[in-house]
Specification:
elongated, 5 helices
Length: 187
């Protein structure tokens, strides 16, 4: 086996592993997100009658904000590095070994940050590039979380000004009753 064949095999192996890694990164991101939304939903469902409403919004948002800061942002950054490397491998295979692959080549030298891409498009006053940046999932995720953070801040301020305690000690709903006939009631 000569050096060219060995190099192609190594690039192929690296490409396969990187493609698997890329898939696993985003699969993990969304699996963890589904768990965090279940936890947030649990707070909303079971805490509604026990936690002050403004505080409930803050408490229910904690798992989602935790996901954003500890899972999405770091893993998305890592996924961006992986997709750039996949594009670089395709460029090398295409240039040096005449293997045409075009799955990730466009990402080899592309800036994938929505913030930087949007700023560059706005600066150039290119409407098509602005629309392209706005249609990206990263833009939608960022926008939703900015709205969530603003909602949490307003709820926190509302909670602080309400003067109420975190946990509401109201009366519990009476236990359901069932009557068999007019004279007997089962509790």
């Amino acid at each position: 086996m000569d050096n060219d064949e060995r190099a192609v095999q190594l690039y192929t192996l690296e490409y396969q592993k990187a493609a698997e890694r890329y898939d696993n990164i985003y699969r993990s991101i969304w699996t963890i997100f589904s768990y965090m939304t279940a936890v947030a939903g649990g707070f909303l469902a079971f805490g509604a009658d026990r936690i002050e409403p403004h505080a409930l919004i803050c408490v229910a948002s904690i798992p989602l904000l935790f996901w954003l800061l500890t899972t999405y942002l770091p893993l998305d950054r890592y996924g961006t590095q992986v997709i750039k490397r996949l594009g670089q491998i395709e460029c090398v295979l295409s240039r040096d070994y005449h293997v045409e692959m075009d799955h990730f080549k466009r990402y080899a030298n592309k800036e994938l940050s929505v913030r930087k891409g949007l700023w560059r498009a706005l600066k150039a006053r290119n409407r098509q590039c602005v629309c392209e940046q706005v249609r990206r999932a990263r833009f939608a995720i960022g926008l939703i979380f900015v709205i969530l953070i603003v909602l949490v801040l307003f709820s926190y301020v509302g909670f602080r000004h309400s003067g109420q305690k975190l946990f509401v000690m109201g009366s519990r709903a009476p236990a359901p009753t069932m009557s068999i006939d007019n004279s007997t009631t089962i509790r």
